[in-house]
Design a protein that fits this description.
The complex is a heterodimer. In chain A, the strands form two sheets. In chain A, strands 6-7-8-3-9-10 form a six-stranded mixed sheet, with helices on both faces. In chain A, strands 2-1-4-5 form a four-stranded antiparallel sheet, with helices on one face. Chain A has two domains: 1-82 and 166-254, P-loop containing nucleotide triphosphate hydrolases (Rossmann fold, 3-Layer(aba) Sandwich), CATH 3.40.50.300; 92-165, no CATH class. Chain A is globular. Chain A has helices at 43-50, 73-82, 98-103, 112-116, 122-134, 150-162, 180-197, 208-214, 237-244, and strands spanning 2-13, 17-28, 32-36, 58-63, 66-67, 83-86, 168-172, 200-205, 217-222, 225-231. In chain A, a hairpin with a 2-residue loop joins strand 9 (217-222) and strand 10 (225-231). Chain A has nine helices and ten strands. Chain B is an all-alpha fold. Chain B is built from eleven helices and no strands. Chain B has helices at residues 3-30, 35-52, 57-60, 63-95, 103-118, 121-132, 136-161, 164-172, 177-215, 218-228, 232-260. The longest helix of chain B has 39 residues, at 177-215. The two termini of chain B are 38 Å apart. Classes of the chains: A alpha/beta, B mainly alpha. Chain A: This is Phosphonate ABC transporter ATP-binding protein. Chain A: It comes from Gracilibacillus pellucidus.
Chain lengths: 254, 261
């Protein structure tokens, strides 16, 4: 059964500039999909339409059969609880400790009072440490996040997304600010999340090689339109040229 | 920016300097202010200060009374500032671009802030004096209102400066509005806010003296009383205690600031 259905999705900013134009695709549970495309193609906007961080102008996004565009506040919270998100700049609260940042992922399950007072159950705390251990940063649990390296911060971000127990994880350029070594570590973790835990992943990338290596399926965006959608082994130079609009050998591949 | 614009900008700076010089000259001419003459009176003023404002042994007997009033003034300033800080926090969260609930409340919060800020504390104390009479509540309220205006403005800036990205991340986890405020916005802006509160306590202790003169309360009232009865020895003692207090408070708040930032 498909987890996510995007039908005729369009998005404008200021009522004019069209960022996304008639996007259609379907994602099955457990898939590892990579969205590639040049800067400004609408990759980030596409991800943010799925968990409604930006509003949808036209078309439908169905998550688990429910229409995202028409959701009210309460349903929207529930939707976001089911969807984890990982960001390019990690988006942690820099002055708080690692463990506090990880536990922020549980807010979707908390009442306002429980959240404000920071009331977390023993089980949640254990789960948080378990995840930190799994991602190899348990020894930093009580450090402030701004003392960590980029790669470590991104792993905290992954823990925060995982503790939500999501069905889907959206990754917005998770390795764009990292060095090649940390990038590999992060991508390996994302792959194991998908294969071991069966969580569906949609990863925005701008490194074509990385996308081809990790993703089973690739969606290519160009100027807000899907120009490629298929298994990654069918992404040939011709298609890459079509996505990026230039000769592929001019692309600096990292 | 192109070359033409850059040249224009440079010319503008020169133009503004010329305008400022002309305005300064005109204002001096209109008000009969002679800079050289006023500088000449400075030695004379110091002569007066040195011969009159001397702390005598006799005036030291009044010290307990002075310290009592000074304590009253200091605590009033602290109370007015901290209470104003609580109100300002709410107004700032309502008024800030990142945390506002809607534009209407944001505009109201900003309006309250600018209204209470743009009327000077001196004017507030005189206005409140009419309605509340000569007591310490008047002084308290005057400081309170002025502080709310200033702190709201400062807090709005602190909240705006807080990293927007962690707010986005918390929203994405399904957190509520209050989760986001208490766990993403406040942890980031609180140190800066505390720093502003300390700054305001210092400022308010200074203005409390002036407000006291106007509303007849605290240390300001004593200062006014002895000044008008020409008991300059006591005036000197009061001034000295105020200076020492302000310096002590400043040292203390600098220390606190270093710890929290």
């Amino acid at each position: 059964m498909s987890l996510l259905n995007v039908e005729g999705l369009s998005k404008f900013y200021d009522g004019e500039t069209k960022v996304l134009n008639d996007i259609n695709f379907e994602i099955k549970s457990g898939e590892f999909v990579s969205v590639i495309g040049p800067s400004g193609a609408g990759k980030s906007t596409l991800l943010r339409c799925i968990n409604r961080l930006v509003d949808i102008n036209e078309g439908k996004v169905l998550f688990d059969g429910l229409d995202v565009a028409s959701m009210k506040k309460k349903e929207l919270r529930k939707l976001r609880t089911n969807i984890g998100m990982i960001f390019q700049h990690y988006n942690l609260v820099p002055r708080l400790t690692v463990i506090e940042n990880v536990l922020h992922g549980r807010f979707g399950y908390k009442s306002t009072l429980q959240g404000v007072l920071g009331m977390f159950t023993e089980k949640e705390k254990e789960q948080a440490f378990h995840l930190l251990e799994k991602l190899g940063i348990a020894e930093h649990a009580y450090k402030r996040c701004d003392q960590l390296s980029g790669g470590q911060q991104q792993r905290v971000g992954i823990c925060r997304a995982l503790i939500q127990e999501p069905k889907l994880i959206l990754c917005d350029e998770p390795i764009a600010s990292l060095d090649p070594n940390s990038s590999k570590v992060i991508m390996d973790y994302l792959q194991s999340i998908s294969s071991e835990m069966g969580i569906t992943c949609i990863v925005n990338l701008h490194q074509v090689e990385v996308a081809k290596e990790y993703a089973s399926r690739i969606i290519g965006l160009r100027k807000g339109e899907v120009v490629f959608d298929g298994a990654s082994q069918f992404l040939y130079n011709e298609q890459i040229e079509n996505i990026y609009g230039i000769e592929s050998r001019e692309l600096i591949t990292v | 920016m192109n070359e033409k614009q850059m040249r224009k900008n440079r010319w503008q700076t020169t133009f503004f300097f010329i305008v400022i010089i002309i305005i300064t000259y005109l204002s001096a001419a209109i008000t009969n202010f002679h800079f050289i003459d006023s500088v000449k009176t400075i030695p004379k003023a110091f002569e007066w200060i040195l011969s009159n404002l001397i702390v005598s042994m006799e005036s030291l007997e009044k010290l307990p009374q002075i310290l009592d009033k000074l304590g009253e003034t200091v605590f009033m300033s602290i109370a007015a500032t901290t209470l104003a800080a609580v109100v300002s926090l709410f107004l700032a969260i309502m008024g800030s671009k990142t945390t506002k609930v809607n534009n209407f409340f944001s505009a109201i919060a900003r309006l309250i802030a600018s209204f209470s800020r743009n009327i000077p504390v001196v004017a507030w104390s005189l206005i409140l004096l009419i309605s509340f009479g000569q007591n310490s509540l008047t002084g308290f309220l005057a400081l309170f209102v002025g502080t709310v205006g200033f702190l709201t403005r400062a807090f709005i800036e602190s909240v705006d400066e807080a990293n927007q990205s962690s707010v986005e991340a918390l929203t994405a986890t399904g957190a509520t509005y209050f989760h986001m405020i208490s766990k993403a916005v406040l942890p980031q802006s609180l140190p800066q806010m505390l720093s502003w509160i300390l700054f305001m306590i210092e400022t308010n202790i200074r203005s409390a003296t002036l407000v006291g003169i106007l509303t007849g309360t605290g240390i300001g009232y004593m200062f006014d009383l002895y000044y008008k009865t020409m008991n300059y020895n006591l005036v000197a003692l009061i001034t000295l205690t105020i200076i020492i207090t302000v310096i002590l408070i400043e040292l203390a708040s600098n220390k606190i600031r270093r710890v929290i930032l």
